[in-house]
Amino acid sequence: MKQWYESLFENYARKYDNEIYTQGTVGECDFIEQEIRRDKSLKIIDIGCGTGRHSIELAKRGYQVTGIDLSESQLKRAQEKAKEAGVTICFQKHDARNLQFKGEFDLAIMLCEGGFSLMETDEMNFEILKNATKALKQEGKLIFTTLNGLFPLFHSVKEFYESAAKEGRAEVKGCTFDLMTFRDHNTAVIEDDSGKKRELKCNERYYVPSEITWLLKTLGHKTIDIYGAKLGAFSRKNKLTPEDFEMLVIAEKQ
């Protein structure tokens, strides 16, 4: 039986690109460039690349990018968009829990919950972090976003989704946040690219900063910085607060 995150992205590539949370690509890539000092010789892996929005933007700026995703539908759209943009990117279908890359990349990115935090168990989420780390060279850097566990302690996740809902975009209802597991169970209502409406039972894990720090330290990261993730405006100046729905994590092995 397919998990919700597998079913979600079937025939949902074009509609996905119109969702509000996918509109910050240029600003997010500006931040990535700053973090790697605009060194075009570096190799980048985009884990959970989806329709390739970050991969393509970085490739347009001259970087060598490999994009991996679990969804054939998303990867197909990514390849179409890359061709339209006139860039060459190595897109591959992989499950981030079973990556075979080892010490090949200078930077790994996992943005907009690119696999991590969507898995049904904490062990699976940890495997994704472990494999992303393993794919890096000794001095590699990992940049990713994840759901901020401080947010639901102070706010209603249900109200957040309701305020963010717009006509023609994904709707989230029936949110129940479990304080014991830091998981939100909800029903996502989406209209796919063919106009068909589907309901999916979702299960997403929120993390608090101390958890993320501990997980990354166990994987050998020496420097771990966590900030608030502002859509399209990532910055080391954004101190993480309970008002941030997502957090931005930057980890370095040395």
Structure description:
By secondary structure, the chain is of the alpha/beta class. The protein contains 9 helices and 10 strands. It has helices spanning 4-8, 13-16, 25-35, 53-60, 72-85, 122-134, 151-154, 157-164, 209-218, and strands at residues 43-47, 64-69, 90-93, 105-110, 136-147, 171-178, 183-191, 197-205, 223-228, 246-252. Helix 4 (53-60) links the parallel strand 1 (43-47) and strand 2. Helix 3 (25-35) crosses helix 4. The longest helix is centred in the first third of the chain and has 14 residues, at 72-85. The chain is globular, with a radius of gyration of 17 Å. The chain starts with a helix and ends with a strand. The mean pLDDT is 90.
**Percentage beta strand:** 25-35%
Task: Count every helix, treating DSSP H or I runs of 4 or more residues as helices.
Answer: 9
Strand order of the largest sheet: 3-2-1-4-5-10-9
Mean pLDDT comes to: 90
Number of strands: 10
**SSE string, helix = H, strand = E?**
HHHEHEHEEHEHHEEEHEE
Major sheet attributes = 7 strands, mixed
Cα radius of gyration in angstroms = 17 Å
Indicate the low-confidence ranges by residue numbers: none
Note the overall shape.
Answer: globular
Report, as a whole number of angstroms, the end-to-end distance.
Answer: 41 Å
Share of residues in helices: 25-40%
